[in-house]
What does this fold into?
Amino acid sequence: MNKGRIAGAVVTLALALVAGMAPATAPPDRVSRLEHQRQMREAELRRHFDQAVVMLHARQYEHAVTALHRVLELAPGMPEAHANMGYALLGLQRADAARDFFLATIELRPEQANAYYGLALAAEAVHDYETALGGMRSFLHLAPADDPYRARARAALWEWEEKLGRNAGRAAAPPRKQ
It folds into this structure.
């Protein structure tokens, strides 16, 4: 019985020590004001960028432009925002402005394939088929082999070559990928 009392006293003493020494709740993690501002800016950036993507897919180009303006205020060096702005402006039939955004994307990230595709579409809209051909060829050079837009790109090349009179004597249809 003596051993049982001693064990109980030890357990009680241990619990009392732990309860008295450990705080009831852990202190919250402290974040500096600058870190908090950075986190909030990133969250706002992500929110506006995601809204813009949804608006682009819904063909709500004015709303996409509004969201992308804010994204570009927060992150002027974000190539994806420049490219998406170009596509939104294409949707609004503003090919010259779209062209500038695609060129900015290419300047920021020369390997971004969809910027060349967009540049080609913007050039086509103003009947600048030489620039359209160059942009689409660059897209085909950079795009992965399984990119779903490759077939459209090849067809566009064929069409623009035809408009420039370069397909004389060739087969009547664009080559198909087997």
Q: What stands out?
A: Helices lie at 2-21, 33-57, 61-74, 79-91, 95-108, 113-125, 129-142, 150-163.
